[in-house]
Write a sequence for this structure.
């Protein structure tokens, strides 16, 4: 099918074309109140064609098994008539890095194997008066990319996601604490145990409710709670934001913008991660890209289109992400945050990563409400807490409610108090807890 689509595009006179094909089989399970509620499997497959015709780019996609190559090309050409003029070229065949993205144990795991993981978590987290929910998803995929410049490559992949949460409703107090495991292979017994322990470690002190502190205080952001602080930075490190002129970092390459302990690397070649890949969805070989090194801005991520529009020597960094319908877009793979940007461990460890002991009065933030809403690229954030704990005299004394934190990411990350020892993967981001001074904490 892929070859026939590309050949038909050539016959119709396009100057360049690429064809992306993907198939994914997903198995999902859901446990509610500790019992298996649903289990199912779905398979999705489709093809995406991009053409360059008359210096304009067109896109067409289809999930039909019997899709007509001629119809697909016709729709892509019609799309090109409405497209902007763009000097877009596709990558020639190139060696790809060797990387394990497919694991037999994950691909061949039976439904009983997945159910057993769920039951194990339920058993570890069961507590009187609390609801335990677990969800598991296993994906097995195939991807292939062929273009008119000679590239013909693809790879197989597996991904496993396991998440669990514990709920307790007591009057008007609703407590929800969860965590997740994400990997390219099935979790080991130790991974399941660490996931359950992470939830239990944060559950016990949450049963005690204390008054929140107020003022400009030291705040420890856990790997999960750090999302609000990092979101403006990751948005600003996208080549698309630079191209649009909205990135505060766009003109600061080579400048010391952040604390010297702050580094950000995007690395698609980390072993065992579900977003790792030998090439992106446009056929560009993957590599590690240092975006911020010891506080100095070094680079931005680009796909083929944003690099072509940026000009001035910009090239794709291998960050093109693609679906069946629509054109590719720029997106991160595996973000590594912290000292040197080279951590690879899985340290659930003590809550706060050892940073709590040196704080006399402050807050530990594990989850915030409303992260990602509004125009955050300028760095300002202000969010009510969903899960946070008060720190007094070097200890966590209980959970706070009706509090909010605010600050500016660019200002706070200029002087980092300390990094925790609990570096871990959370989804597609690796990082430890971090202590930031002078975060505004207010009662609501």
């Amino acid at each position: 099918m892929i070859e026939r689509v590309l050949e038909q595009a050539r016959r119709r006179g396009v100057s360049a074309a690429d064809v992306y094909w993907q198939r994914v089989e997903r198995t999902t399970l859901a446990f509610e109140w500790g019992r298996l509620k649903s289990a199912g499997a779905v398979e999705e497959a489709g093809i995406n064609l991009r053409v360059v015709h008359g210096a304009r780019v067109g896109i067409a996609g289809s999930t039909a098994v019997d899709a007509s190559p001629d119809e697909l090309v016709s729709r892509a050409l019609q799309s090109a008539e409405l497209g902007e003029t763009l000097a877009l070229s596709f990558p020639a065949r190139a060696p790809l890095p060797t990387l394990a993205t497919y694991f037999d144990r994950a691909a061949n795991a039976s439904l009983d194997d997945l159910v057993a993981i769920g039951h194990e978590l339920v058993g570890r987290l069961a507590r009187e008066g609390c609801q335990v929910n677990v969800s598991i998803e296993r994906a097995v995929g195939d991807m292939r990319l062929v273009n008119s410049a000679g590239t013909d490559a693809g790879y197989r992949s597996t991904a496993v996601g396991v998440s669990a949460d514990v709920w307790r409703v007591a009057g008007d107090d609703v407590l929800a604490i969860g965590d997740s495991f994400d990997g390219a292979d099935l979790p080991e017994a130790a991974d399941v145990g660490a996931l359950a322990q992470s939830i239990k470690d944060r559950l016990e002190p949450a049963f005690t409710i204390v008054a929140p502190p107020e003022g400009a205080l030291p705040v420890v952001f856990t790997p999960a709670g750090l999302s609000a602080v990092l979101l403006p930075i990751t948005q600003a490190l996208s080549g698309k934001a630079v191209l649009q002129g909205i990135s505060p970092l766009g003109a600061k390459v080579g400048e010391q913008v952040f604390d010297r302990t702050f580094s950000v690397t995007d690395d698609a070649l980390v072993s065992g991660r579900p977003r790792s890949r030998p090439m992106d969805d446009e056929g560009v070989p993957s590599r590690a890209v240092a975006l911020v090194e010891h506080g100095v801005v070094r680079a931005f991520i680009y796909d083929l289109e944003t690099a072509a529009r940026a000009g001035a020597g910009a090239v794709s960094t291998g960050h093109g992400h693609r679906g069946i319908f629509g054109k590719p877009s720029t997106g991160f793979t595996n973000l590594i945050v912290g000292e040197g940007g080279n951590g690879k461990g899985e340290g659930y460890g003590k809550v706060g990563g050892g940073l709590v002991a040196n704080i006399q009065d402050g807050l530990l933030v594990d989850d915030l409400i409303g992260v990602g809403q509004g125009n955050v690229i300028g760095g300002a954030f202000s969010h009510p807490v969903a899960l946070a704990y008060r720190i007094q005299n070097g200890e966590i004394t209980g959970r706070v409610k009706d509090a909010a934190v605010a600050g500016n990411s660019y200002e706070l990350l200029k002087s980092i108090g300390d990094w925790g020892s609990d570096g871990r993967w959370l989804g597609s981001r690796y990082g430890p807890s971090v202590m930031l001074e002078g975060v505004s904490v207010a009662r609501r």
The CA atoms of residues 183 and 273 lie 5 Å apart. The longest helix spans residues 111-125. The mean pLDDT is 94.
